[in-house]
Specification:
With about 100 residues, this protein is mainly alpha-helical. The chain is about 75% helix and about 0% strand. The chain has two domains: about 1-35, no CATH class; about 50-100, no CATH class. The protein is built from six helices and no strands. The chain is globular and about 40 Å long.
Length: about 100
């Protein structure tokens, strides 16, 4: 599966290339603290958590109870998880592999 080509441009390439240079969690925290608001970071983290819970087979009700996210947002994340560019799934699988190897 591929990504939406409309997203691709020189500035986004440069941003992603900059992210590839980071190697520790502290470096990511420092970069994202400068790049995003606290709310934006928390929203991205929460969406990723919802994707992980959906992959585990949790129900919308269970996810809402744990995260406080609306069913509409959960549905949107599920749609991207199932029909998106497989970015969530790729990251979840790699993170699970990393978790098991530590």
């Amino acid at each position: 599966m591929s990504f939406d080509e409309r997203l691709k441009n020189e500035e986004v390439d440069r941003l992603f290339s900059a992210m590839k240079t980071l190697s520790t969690l502290e470096e990511y925290y420092r970069f994202f603290e400068d790049l995003c608001t606290t709310a934006e970071i928390e929203t991205m983290a929460q969406r990723f958590r919802v994707a992980e819970l959906l992959e585990k087979g949790c129900t919308y009700e269970e996810i809402q109870k744990e995260t406080g996210i609306s069913s509409a947002t959960i549905s949107r994340i599920k749609r991207f998880l199932n029909y998106g560019a497989d970015g969530y799934r790729l990251a979840i699988e790699r993170l699970q592999h990393t978790d098991h190897s530590e």
